[in-house]
Specification:
InterPro entries: Glypican. The protein has 351 residues and is an all-alpha fold. It has 16 helices and two strands. The two termini are 65 Å apart.
Length: 351
């Protein structure tokens, strides 16, 4: 969001009256000023004189130097103006940022919830295939699937440094002893196998290649789509952090004084309904938000890149689509192991 956009958000109510820090007294009584001061600024009524008085003003002076002018303002009022200006700026920025962050949070939550649902549905389909088609007991494959899909979700949400290739390889390695016990050999013989034998299978997994090239092809197919989904999540998180950093921008003294003159000093002359012109609002806010303006080009680039990523999320072979038929890929791997069963069993026997 550009500085001008922030300025319009913060001072969207400015109208073109073009009265600025006008302390020329237009009233003989300050009663109306007292009412506005209490309601608009939350100041104490005793801060406001009953009638225009001469007081040394610094923030609301018509001259660059403090001057002793007749007005409805006191030094205590000026101090309240400055504090109110600071509160007003921070509240306005936080309110605007809250709406933006809420939209980002909703997008991130919806995306992650959809991926969680898809991974759970796919896990359920694979579990059914292992139990019903390949007779692998549910209690034996549940942990393998839980770890695998947990790692996939962590990758998609940017919560792990492991690559898709690592995650796929680890899954098939952990699945291999179960496939050997229940698919490659007679399940009754598997009861004679101990943990040491399973450890031996894992040790020689790479050389045995029980699933052929299916794991490698699956990892390549998933890699690009899953990277795109991961970057999507990470970009939304960066946006959240950027918005939070803007909330913590320090409002410097000159900015607070400028906003005080802009918003409140017209009270000193009894011009309670006066508002500064829009151009003046924008000029003041450009100065106040100069630190935020340094973020503007980077933020614009981030938004543009995010939009490009978002468009890619719905192309063919996206993460959700690949997840939805991953059970077919796992079945292909099991079929490969079943067909190569005699060769695998023979190789294992010679180890």
């Amino acid at each position: 969001m550009s500085v001008d956009s922030w300025s319009r958000v913060v001072f969207g109510g400015c109208v073109c009256v073009c009265l600025f820090a006008n302390v020329v007294v237009a009233v003989s009584s300050c009663g109306a000023v007292r009412d506005v001061y209490q309601k608009q600024v939350g100041g104490l009524p005793e801060d406001v004189p009953l009638s225009p008085v001469s007081a040394v003003l610094t923030e609301c002076s018509r001259t660059p130097e403090p001057s002793n002018e007749s007005s409805c303002c006191s030094r205590a009022m000026e101090q309240t103006f400055v504090q109110s200006a600071q509160d007003y700026l921070r509240d306005s920025i936080k309110k605007s940022n809250h709406q933006l962050k809420q939209r980002i949070n909703q997008s991130l939550t919806a995306f992650q919830d959809h991926l969680k649902l898809t991974t759970r549905e796919t896990q359920a389909k694979i579990a059914d295939a292992l139990t019903l088609s390949y007779k692998i007991p549910k209690e034996e494959h549940t942990k393998v699937l839980d770890v695998f899909f947990g790692n996939l979700r962590m990758y998609l949400f940017g919560e792990t440094h492991h690559t898709i290739g690592d995650i796929i390889d680890r899954f098939f390695r952990n699945l291999f002893p179960l496939v050997f016990d229940y698919v490659i050999i007679d399940p009754s013989k598997s009861k004679q196998m101990g943990q040491n034998f399973h450890g031996c299978l894992l040790q020689h997994y790479t050389a045995l290649e029980p699933f052929g090239n299916v794991p490698t092809h699956l990892a390549k197919k998933l890699n690009y789509a899953f990277q795109r989904a991961r970057v999507f999540s990470e970009t939304l998180k960066v946006m959240q952090m950027t918005v939070d950093s803007v909330n913590n921008v320090t409002v410097d003294d000159e900015c607070k004084k400028a906003v005080s003159r802009l918003q409140f000093c017209s009270m000193c002359g009894g011009h309670n309904e006066a508002r500064p012109c829009r151009g003046l609002c924008l000029n003041v806010m450009r100065g106040c938000l100069s630190r935020i303006s340094e973020l503007s080009p980077s933020w614009d680039d981030l938004v543009m890149n995010f939009q490009n990523i978002q468009m890619g999320m719905f192309r063919q072979h996206n993460a959700q689509e690949l997840l939805s038929y991953m059970d077919v890929n796992i079945t292909d791997a099991l079929l490969q192991a079943s067909e190569d069963g005699p060769r695998i069993y023979s190789d294992v026997s010679t180890i």
